[in-house]
Amino acid sequence: MALAFAFRRHPPGLATPPPILAAELAVGLAAMTLLSPLAWKAHFVTLLAAYWLVWRVLRGRAAWRVWWASLACLTLSAPALVGERLNNALESLNVITVGALLVLGLAVWATLRPLPPQPPASSATRSAP
Hints:
Distance between the termini: 52 Å
Number of helices: 8
Radius of gyration: 19 Å
Number of strands: 0
Low-confidence stretches: none
Strand content: under 5%
Order of helices and strands: HHHHHHHH
Oligomer: single chain
């Protein structure tokens, strides 16, 4: 319900540019992973769409810091990198979920940003004969 309410200002239709629909899909995939009671670590691959979306629109140091913190939480907590003991400790602190929440928040932020102005219609750019 919250996503439908958030995206109501961009109703899909023939005039809707594909990037808006792709952004809404990326947010939906990220939220699906977090809200599903049967999500395994392999399901977090759906966050790649949100990372792609956010990567395209990132501006400012604070947003970059959140992006890198999310990426670190999701990738640097792998047992092959930190060992099984530290991995178990990080999982008990829900580091993977925190990383997913960070990228989901950034994806919602990127999706709800104001749209760029539409280019004028082709008939408006022609000069009168």
